Amino acid sequence: MATLRAQRRAELTDRILDAAQAQLLEVGPAALSLRAVARDVGVTVSGLYRYYAGRDDLLTALLVRAFDDHADAVQDAVEGAEPDLSGQDDDGDRLAPVRAGLLAYRRWGLENPTPFGLAYGTPVPGYAAPADETVRAGARCGDLLVAAVARGRARSGAAAGHDGGDDLDPARRAHLKALASRRGYDLPPGVLARTVDLFVVVHGFVVMDVFGQLRPLSDNPDRDFAALVDRGLDTLR
Amino acid sequence: MATLRAQRRAELTDRILDAAQAQLLEVGPAALSLRAVARDVGVTVSGLYRYYAGRDDLLTALLVRAFDDHADAVQDAVEGAEPDLSGQDDDGDRLAPVRAGLLAYRRWGLENPTPFGLAYGTPVPGYAAPADETVRAGARCGDLLVAAVARGRARSGAAAGHDGGDDLDPARRAHLKALASRRGYDLPPGVLARTVDLFVVVHGFVVMDVFGQLRPLSDNPDRDFAALVDRGLDTLR
DNA sequence: AGAAGTCAAGAGCAGTGTTCTCGAAGTGAG
DNA sequence: CTCACTTCGAGAACACTGCTCTTGACTTCT
């Protein structure tokens, strides 16, 4: 019954992370100051070390939260675009949830450039994000999209064996099959290959967009991104 | 005739930048320490301020150098793959220089992850790179590739008016025409659109590759990147 | 040779992450 | 209720950081 102490501890841990997040949004990850965080929370710097092992530990927590928030946004969008289970109103695009997810993927990045940069940008120097954490969290978006593609194809009655990716490089085909079985993806290798390709293109576009490197190339990223996504979805039918 | 002094000044300016570059490779941009640079060069910290206005100024110099080195690598590759002017030995792929440039684009990133991250990754917090510098330097790679595409098409005798991009979004078509005339690109809008698309895809792939986010998705990035480039080049013929 | 400009050096300021110690507070067993 | 035990917050201290300012020596030009 470690109620009082444990409860206080949980509360303060959260408050510290919130303050760190607020500061992250203001000054960026590299300028994140433990002293400023401590001041905001109302604790001494040393007291802060009771809750996080150090600056790196705090950064890791922020990174994980960024990944989770991003995946949450994508998940919400995908689920929101999923057709009714009742079966009616199913004459729309079978891949609409995928499109919604990809648009949300970009939107979250544009609306949260700092966490996005922390998660997908240059690693903060002197700080190596724990690989398992980033892989785990980063894979969530991929899983969501693959699942949405699979559901969409199932609804349109696509043959499971169709497009096994016979034109694929054999080694890549083998890798994709392994990836599918490892993560429980229900897609034939050919479709999975094009889904991965689409994901890479989308991520690349979003990275350039969020980091401001797209401006000379596009006067209207919204329009060009939508076209890019639609082109990619066309290859998945 | 400020020879002696000016010469010393130029030398020391270079040596400082070299030391900063060396330190950048070791500890990353955010941890770049003026004191350590000064120690390496053999000057005091305050003396360092005679040559660079501060940390930001030094970072900018490193950023510009990174962009230039990257574009140099691409340029070398493109020129190295250009066919002889004598006209013989011209039975190869007309777009081989483009391919060589794109492969070099990625190779440089993989071999110089830290400068690549400084140039294309998350902006260093508290430090805003001068927009004109980054745009100017960043545009060089784009210019190189567009020029290589134009030369390749000219060699294969493509009609200048061919593929004006009639299927393009009118607004995007107008923007591309403006971009072409502004930067002197000799490509019809349709081809330019697909060149830009290819560049975005390539950059996105390279970013994920260099930052280590591609690993779960590809067991052999070399192979997948080559396939991606070839697919893109096919759309440019 | 003397005036003007440039330079390196050092001290100092305000800030950083991290470690340590010390006394107060909460916790659970007897 | 008491007592050992753990946890906690605070403060001081250490070794750093970027940056500013002053001082005295050096180079260049008139």
Automatic annotation (TrEMBL), chains A, B:
Statement: the UniProt record of this protein carries the keyword Transcription: yes
Gene3D superfamilies xref list: Tetracycline Repressor, domain 2
DNA-binding region: 33-52
Domain HTH tetR-type residue range list: 10-70
Gene Ontology MF terms in the entry: DNA-binding transcription factor activity; transcription cis-regulatory region binding
InterPro entries xrefs: Homeodomain-like_sf, HTH-type_TetR-like_transc_reg, HTH_TetR, MT1864/Rv1816-like_C, Tet_transcr_reg_TetR-rel_C_sf
Coiled-coil zones: none
Keywords, ordered alphabetically: DNA-binding, Transcription, Transcription regulation
Keyword Signal: no
Record's protein name: TetR family transcriptional regulator
The organism of origin for this protein: Quadrisphaera granulorum
